[in-house]
Predict the structure.
Amino acid sequence: MQPLAGDWRQKLVAKEEAKAAKKAKKAAKAAGASAATSTAAAPAAPAYPTNSKTKPDLAALSKGLPPGWRAMWDAASGDIYYGCPSTKVRCWHVPNAEPAPMQAKGRAN
C-alpha cells in the first residue's frame, strides 16, 4: 500500500472553502444584478442585525421604528426581536407600520 500524498483533511477543507467561495461569488454577482435593477424601484431598508452574542445597543436599533415599538434582545439565544409594549405585540422582523387597532364586532349600520 502506498501512502496518500498530503493530508486528506487539508484537501477536503480546501475543497469546501473553494466551493463556499464560488457560491459566495455567485450570490454576490446575483445580488449586484438584482440590486442594480431594484434600487430605482425602492429605497434600501436599513440593515438591522438579527443576532448578537453580546447585548447590542437597543436604543440605536429602536431608532426608525414605528411609534411605540422598540428593539429587544433575548440573552438566551442572542436573537434580536421587536415589540410594542402598549399593544403587547412582538415579532422577529422589523415592523414597518403601526398595527391596526382592533375593531368592535357589530353591524355596519
Notes: The longest helix spans residues 8-38. The helical segments are 8-38, 58-62. Residues 39-45 have pLDDT under 50 and may be disordered. The chain is about 35% helix and 10% strand.
